[in-house]
């Protein structure tokens, strides 16, 4: 009886449904929580900038300031509107992930789970046939029974290295990606202000890292599962093949494929690091453009604080002088 399993398709479907709901709920709650604070900070930022433009303290053309305000409002709309964020930003990154996975693996998005289940089913079928051989042997053939169980163990280790580890890598990267999507509004909101824009750069780098991990792991697993299926198809239990040597060959192939799959993560991190390095250049002009404005804002705040403390000190001195005069006047009388 052929062994069939849909473990990865079932787990993948369940996680996709659960994490989609998780992203929607957490992102909406996050936006509702930070909305008043972001709106207050944005209002103060625009008010101060407009005031300094009117008083001539910002040496920039009016068109530049207007474009900057439009940019801030667009970013704020994307970060603080749940529908815009979920249907725009999240769907854009999901489209990148599915497109890269489909292009790299040469198959429709999501079929990697079916490939994993197909390979796992073939492996389970081989293991079950080995168990049947061990059970069919008489108790006098203890060496034969032991050999078949050793072969079963070697096959199980080989499939765990290729199929299970690869599936876990894809599932973990998918979950991490959904967590980054859930907290994304906070980091997109950081792009509104030059001082906090670096947090947006870091967030984009992490998102691209996990997108590439999913895509590259999919293509490596597609190749690995194809190679492993080729090797498995050559195995015939009821033949004169030396099954122990065949199992060891499969284990060596599995170890090689395991090393390739494990190398995907640093490869994706290096590629995502190179891509995300471009984002500081994109937002860097925005930050550099606002440095004079920030210096002027800090100067105005410093002047206000200095005036406040000077006034407070003068008031305190007058109160002390008045108290001293009140204390000495009865004595003089």
TrEMBL record:
Its main location: membrane. Keywords: Membrane, Transmembrane, Transmembrane helix. The chain crosses the membrane at residues 34-54, 146-169, 175-195, 207-228, 243-261. It is found in: Membrane. GO terms for cellular component: membrane. One of its GO terms (biological process) is protein secretion by the type IV secretion system. InterPro entries: Conjugal_tfr_TrbL/VirB6. It is a multi-pass membrane protein. The keyword Magnesium does not apply. This is Type IV secretion system protein VirB6.
């Amino acid at each position: 009886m052929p062994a069939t399993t849909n473990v990865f398709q079932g787990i993948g479907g369940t996680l996709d449904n659960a994490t989609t709901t998780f992203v929607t709920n957490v992102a909406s709650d996050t936006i509702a929580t930070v909305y008043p604070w972001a709106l207050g900070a944005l209002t103060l930022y625009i008010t101060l900038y407009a005031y300094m433009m009117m008083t001539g303290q910002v040496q920039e053309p009016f068109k530049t300031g207007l474009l900057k305000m439009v940019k801030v409002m667009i970013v704020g709309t994307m970060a603080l509107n749940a529908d815009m964020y979920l249907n725009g930003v999240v769907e854009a990154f999901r489209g990148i992930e599915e497109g890269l996975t489909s292009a790299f693996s040469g198959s429709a998005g999501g079929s990697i789970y079916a490939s994993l289940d197909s390979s796992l089913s073939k492996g389970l079928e081989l293991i079950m046939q080995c168990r049947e051989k061990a059970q069919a042997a008489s108790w006098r053939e203890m060496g034969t029974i032991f050999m078949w169980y050793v072969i079963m163990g070697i096959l199980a280790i080989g499939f765990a290295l290729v199929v299970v580890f690869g599936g876990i890598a894809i599932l973990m990267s998918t979950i991490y990606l959904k967590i980054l999507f859930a907290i994304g509004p906070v980091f997109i909101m950081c792009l509104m202000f030059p001082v906090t824009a670096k947090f947006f750069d870091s967030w984009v780098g992490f998102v691209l890292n996990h997108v590439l991990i999913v895509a590259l792991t999919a293509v490596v697993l597609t190749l690995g599962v194809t190679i492993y299926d080729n090797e498995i198809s050559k195995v015939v239990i009821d033949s004169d093949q030396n099954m122990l040597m065949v199992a060891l060959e499969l284990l060596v192939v599995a170890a090689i494929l395991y090393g390739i799959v494990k190398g995907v993560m640093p490869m994706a991190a290096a590629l995502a690091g190179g891509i995300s390095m471009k984002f500081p250049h994109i937002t860097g002009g925005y930050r550099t453009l606002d440095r004079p404005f920030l210096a002027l804002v800090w100067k105005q705040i410093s002047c206000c604080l200095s005036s406040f403390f000077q006034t407070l000190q003068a008031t305190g001195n007058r109160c002390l002088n008045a108290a001293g005069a009140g204390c000495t006047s009865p004595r003089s009388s």
